[in-house]
Amino acid sequence: MRRNYKHIGFFITGVFLFLSATAFKNNSAPPKEDVNDINVHVESPYFAKSNIKDGPYFFLEDNHVTVKWIYKNRPVERHIYGRNFNVVKRKFGFEFNYDWIKQDLTTQPNYVQRFNNVDKIIALSDVHGQYDVLVKLLKQFNVIDDQFNWSFGNGHLVILGDMMDRGAKVTEALWLIYRLEKQAETAGGKVHFLLGNHEIMVLNSDARYIHEKYLTTARLFETTYDKLYSENNLIGNWLRKKPVMVTINDMLFVHAGVSEDFVLNGYTRSGTNKLFTENIVGNSWKEILTNQTLSFLMGNKGPVWYRGYFEDTTLTEEKINNILNYFGIDHIIVGHTSMPNIVTLFDNKIFGIDSSIKLGDYGEVFIYENGRYSRGSTSGTIMDL
Ligand code: ZN
Fold this sequence. Notes:
Blueprint: H1 6-21, E1 24-25, H2 33-36, E2 52-60, E3 65-71, E4 74-82, H3 86-92, H4 98-106, E5 114-115, E6 120-124, H5 131-140, E7 156-159, H6 170-187, E8 190-193, H7 197-203, H8 212-220, H9 234-239, E9 245-248, E10 251-254, H10 260-264, H11 269-280, H12 285-289, H13 292-297, H14 308-311, H15 317-327, E11 331-334, E12 343-345, E13 350-352, E14 364-369, E15 372-377, E16 382-384
Parallel strand pairs: 5-9, 6-7, 7-8, 10-11, 11-13
Antiparallel strand pairs: 1-4, 2-3, 3-4, 6-14, 9-10, 12-13, 14-15, 15-16
Bound molecules: zinc ion.
Residues 162, 196-198, 255, 336 line the site of zinc ion (ZN).
């Protein structure tokens, strides 16, 4: 109803025209902060310079990309014409491939989101800016190598929403997953990033849960936090095409859950993904609340807020079976409701995988391999489910 990608179309045209005319134009002399940045965190080759407080944020303009970050306590801005993203490598330690921008802008949202014959899945949820726990888990279970590159082959990694809000390393976590998504594709694997209620809150201008660090970032850029993820921001644009429901083999992944009412109302997975992308994400609360369908989907019986599996004592296994049968699936995997570890409910029909990573010191991944379900901890222990 509301959305269009018209100006993104302009951007693509602009960039293509520009590229055909320009090889690249480098930025002037090396910025002087390079000299001071000697304090490198040995654990991580990325985001290692302690004086860079936040970033990078990429903004896609008509004929260039504006890259912004916070150095000490001041905003820095570079304009990149063409393909030369060496400044990102120099400042943040990771390679940025220009083709990713083209790929993102030309990719249309996939509302169906069904994947079959997947042998290996690792899923985790509700990272909430706890990048260090995220990295530890991904390294522990060989999803990434020591250089933070994809090493999970043709496996599928599922990030079940709520990467944003609360913690202080949201930017780092988003960039890591963004890069892994691109690398996984090349390796024949897949990264699924599902939207949680917190991504939608940020994209819909609700900044109540952001870490104070990001209030500072927004203030220094003389903007608001949601605008750092606007449609012309690279990660903001990428997030806007992400689904809320993904089916892999006989498992449905969804941030909070599917309620009986969702089934009774006859919503479908692809229809729901489409409604979220086109009518909920980036929309105003006023518009959502005055529409019955949209307010249901964003309510406490909807897929990004529901807590019934954990809290509704009237929910029986028979009712769960009805929900599973409606979709023709055998399991539902959810995050959103925090538990000390990954839990199984209703005889392995429901897995709750929000293992309280948000607290910042411990976390677990859900592992599916060779038809078996288990949970793996930050210390590398694997336990059957
Ligand atoms: Zn949530």
